[in-house]
Design brief:
5 strands; binds zinc ion; alpha+beta; binds guanosine-5'-monophosphate
């Protein structure tokens, strides 16, 4: 828990979010600025800044998040989706609480 972290505030319920999923370890909610018809974020409840500060002890948590992605995407009606983990400022990360973007819907996503 980090006092000035926006995702910690969402996890605590201090900032509202459109929740997709929640359990003891993880929360998933719709991105406030979706880039596709469906765009949600899977976030561990543990405050870890980024993939660069993840350690061996977080292996199971990271695996759990990845395995949730196809399950939650299917529940949102997606037949395929893209995942993205922006890491560090150079990687385009804006919120320094590690999270996986899951997005898709509509036409095929462009190749990158
Ligand atoms: P990143 O750190 O990977 O660049 O992206 C952070 C994402 O969090 C952005 O896509 C942004 O739209 C989303 N975001 C930032 N603040 C909020 C918020 O208060 N609520 C929700 N639902 N999403 C947010
Ligand atoms: Zn946090």
């Amino acid at each position: 828990m980090s006092a000035d972290c926006i995702f910690c505030k969402i996890i605590k319920g201090d900032i509202p979010s459109k929740k997709v999923y929640e359990d003891d370890d993880v929360i998933a909610f719709h991105d406030i600025h979706p880039i596709t018809r469906v765009h949600f974020l899977i976030v561990p409840k543990l405050h870890i800044e980024s993939l660069q500060t993840c350690e061996a002890q977080h292996q199971a948590l990271l695996g759990k998040i990845l395995l949730l992605a196809p399950k939650l995407a299917a529940e949102q009606g997606l037949k395929g989706f893209r995942t993205m983990i922006n890491t560090g400022r150079e990687g385009g990360q804006e919120v320094f609480h590690v999270h996986v973007h899951v997005f898709g819907g509509g036409e095929s996503l462009p190749r990158i």
